[in-house]
Amino acid sequence: MPESTDTGVDSGLSRVNALSAEEFQTEFARCLDIDRWVTALERERPFNDRTALFAAADAHARTITDDEVAKALARHPRIGERATGRDTESAWSRGEQAGVDTGRSDVRDAFQAANAEYERRFGQIYLVCASGRSGEELLADLTDRLGNDPATEARVVADELRKIALVRVEKVLDQ
């Protein structure tokens, strides 16, 4: 994923820096639907380079609250359930979850059962940064996280949202 042209200009970063406030908020809400996070990033523009943007995105995402987690979860499909929309965010979600479908009914069935148990235990969907991970890896993660207490799990989910946001910031830059 090249970030600059032969002239040394990062066209993705230039585009992001040139977005109107409204356009910026729309694009970055697809990365992490937390108003405070999006607004904080928008206020820090222009970014000198990708490193500065990623550092700011990471720093602001590390302070996600439990209330912000609940709001952000509303935009995410269950792991293993493909987003069906034609919008960019749905396409990103399908790509990020590509490794979940192993084609194995035993893994799919175990995943559905573990998802149901997770939702009973924590009252929310299981969320994980699934990019580049297999269905078996995600099932093992889900099973392990069922052992967390609610406070620990809340922090784990917030960190998973942060990881997803950073993957998606890169997608915004590279579109």
Describe the structure concisely for a colleague:
This protein has 175 residues and is mostly helical.
Provide the descriptors you would attach to this structure in a database record.
175 residues, mainly alpha, UraD-like, 9 helices
What does this structure look like?
The chain has helices spanning 11-18, 21-29, 35-44, 50-61, 66-73, 88-96, 105-122, 135-145, 150-174. It is an all-alpha fold and 175 residues long. The protein has one domain: Oxo-4-hydroxy-4-carboxy-5-ureidoimidazoline decarboxylase (UraD-like), CATH 1.10.3330.
Strand content: under 5%
The biggest beta sheet is recorded as:
none
What is the strand tally?
0
Radius of gyration: 17 Å
CATH superfamily: Oxo-4-hydroxy-4-carboxy-5-ureidoimidazoline decarboxylase
Task: Kindly give the count of domains.
Answer: 1
List unreliable stretches of 5+ residues: 1-5
Distance between the termini: 10 Å
Helix content: 55-70%
Mean pLDDT: 85
Structural class comes to mainly alpha
The CATH architecture is: Orthogonal Bundle
Overall morphology: elongated
Pattern of helices and strands: HHHHHHHHH
What is the CATH level 1 assignment?
Mainly Alpha
Count up the helices. 9
CATH fold call: UraD-like
